[in-house]
Amino acid sequence: MKKTIGIIGGMGPEGTADLYMKIIRYYQQKFNAKYDKDFPEFFISSIPIPDVVESLENEKITLTMLTETAIKLQNAQCDFIVIACNTVQYLLNDIKKSITVPIIDIAKVIALYLNKKRYKKVSILATSATLEKKVYDNEIDNVGIEVIKPNNKDQKIVTKVIMTQLAGKTTKEETNMLIQVINNLKNQGAEAVLIACTDLPMVINQKDTKIKLIECTQIYANQAAFISFSSKQVNSFV
């Protein structure tokens, strides 16, 4: 029996829809899902948390909203939870204190993927908060991979692009801005670039650059789909 997936979303709303559709596509492509009964049950809670792209000053309110939502999904009998946002996963351990249902940690999923692919040095495009709170650092460091982060000037560009995407106003100009940042990271020795923000896949994809882009949302969605389909207990990536 397929496991029920809970999604904490709204950060942003379009990124949440993208994560959901990636799980659906994985079921179609890997498990030959065709009829409605072939797909897992979902509970999606899209919550309007305070801004976490440009500021973390409302951390207490954000944690309260995330925790209350996780409890709702647990009460809805979800077998596990995924969070459609990279940034707020720095609060993962605090959220887990209030529930027993597993939450899949995106950093653990990505670190395992990078290790399997034998990368040695990668770069990352994410919100400033994701970088400052070191959402990925410990897990990736544990597998011996170096992470190159954008300089201050380039990080401001990434932030601007994310905010523009959240407003639904990105154009080719924003894609070109990210390409320049990526080129700068490549020149520092990056073998691949982590697209570690759920809103950035709507702005840039592999067709836009020759360097390997690792879309964290896609890897995360694949793992969620696999866990849901598997008969094994959820005991990894939490």
UniProtKB/TrEMBL annotation:
One of its GO terms (molecular function) is amino-acid racemase activity. It comes from the Bacteria. Keywords: Isomerase. NCBIfam families: asp_race. Belongs to the aspartate/glutamate racemases family. This is Aspartate racemase. Coiled coil: none annotated. It holds the Pfam family Asp_Glu_race. Gene3D superfamilies: 3.40.50.1860.
